[in-house]
Amino acid sequence: MKTLIKNARVFVGGKFSERDLLIDGAVISGIFEPSSVPDVSDGEVVDLSNSDCVVLPGLSDVHVHLREPGFSYKETVRTGTMAAARGGFTSVCAMPNLKPVPDTLEHLREELGIIERDAAVHVYPYGAITLGEKGERLADMEDMAPYVKGFSDDGRGVQNPEMMREAMLEAKRLGRPIVSHCEVESLLTGGCIHDGEYARMHGHGGISSESEWRQIERDIGLLRETGAAYHVCHMSAKESVALVRHAKAEGLDITCETGPHYLAMCDMDIGEDGRFKMNPPIRSAADRDALIAGIQDGTVDMIITDHAPHSAEEKGRGLEGSLMGVVGLETSFAACYTYLVRTGKISLEKLVDLMHGAPKRRFGVGGDIEPGAPADLTVFNLGAEFTVDPDEFLSMGRATPFAGARLYGRCLLTMVGGKKVWEDKGL
């Protein structure tokens, strides 16, 4: 079947151009000047004239928790990838804190089988760094390497520096990056939010910034020794930004990510609700501003969601009692467009690079809009304002810090291999 997307602002070659897109089956068969496309009387026409719509290459999120196998009461591969499609994502990388942990090829195959059967978008798993994510012995990295985009013990930092050095050397040999959750467990004191003003005002235990940046500092030292490829997960602290900036200037092979909630909020914006509890926590205004500056100068490479669904009961115990983790796939682009692009902090082109270009360069996920390429793309109406209502989510998770927020940028259509995997019926 053919689909013609007419009169569109299409992101092609790093910039927006007025174009018509012709999709034939699974691929983009042509990109044309407006009104010069061949006849498609036997296909579907989507006319985007007189609108604020843009056509983007499918977005990529390299840090999501799909919870399956092992925790399907929180999320499944099917519901998580449907949420991804609704948010404009055509590729996601799945974290390994599952049951069983993908620490051997046998365990990984269980996850791969579910992905092949149920995924609505492209899903690329990570393998664990250590067996059971326990930090004691290396996982079977060599056997898993052909099937994973990198190695991570996300949810736990690798505490032993010798173990991390060994992992870096093995990952380098296999041509895969280490994707690191950076947290020094000895610096944790049972806190539930950032160790800052809000915690002091409300009598909550805090999570120090040092628990994050101290392990980044250690691992940068190991990078100098090993020459591995290294990616920092969900960065939240200003000290972390400074460390990565200096490491890049030194020429080390290091990249990093942060999430929309760290860029849009500070600890004084949260409330006494589990939907504001995640690890690492939303930190101070100074940390938020440092992360934005890091995006502006290229220190921070990409924006991810750290989509981490839990059940309503697990997230309904307030700040002290709720589990760590919030959902984000269905709000990520709109939140970033609203708080970063509409406020003039970055350009729309920069946002597309953060959510598509950089993941493609680092992890090889996603593709561009060009003739002959798979038709993996998404359409956003940038002028469409909406209120975030978690009850409308396709994800089984409902806990989001953006609940009730007024955002701009509604996803109207997402295609994977030319197949519509999400469509807003109001298109």
* Distance, first to last CA: 19 Å
What characteristic shape results from the CA principal axes?
A: globular
Biggest β-sheet description: 8 strands, mixed
Can you give the mean pLDDT? 96
How much helicity do the residues have? Answer: 25-40%
Strand and helix order: EEEEEEHEHEHHEEHEHEHEHHEHHHEEE
- Supply the number of helical segments: 12
Compute the CA-based radius of gyration: 21 Å
Low-confidence stretches: none
Structural class: alpha/beta
Q: Count every beta strand, where a strand is a DSSP E run of 2 or more residues.
A: 17
- Beta-strand portion reads 15-25%
What does this structure look like?
There is one protein chain. The chain has helices spanning 77-86, 105-118, 141-144, 161-174, 197-202, 210-226, 238-250, 260-264, 285-297, 318-321, 332-341, 348-363; strands at 2-12, 15-24, 27-32, 44-47, 53-57, 59-64, 89-94, 122-125, 178-180, 193-194, 206-207, 230-232, 254-258, 302-303, 377-387, 406-416, 419-423. The chain is an alpha/beta fold. Strands 1, 2, 3, 4, 5, 15, 16 and 17 form an eight-stranded mixed beta sheet that branches. A four-stranded parallel beta sheet has the order 9-12-13-14. A three-stranded parallel beta sheet has the order 6-7-8. α7 (238-250) links the parallel β12 (230-232) and β13. α4 (161-174) packs across α6, α6 packs parallel to α7 (238-250) and α7 packs parallel to α9. The longest helix has 17 residues, at 210-226. It is globular, with a radius of gyration of 21 Å. The mean pLDDT is 96.
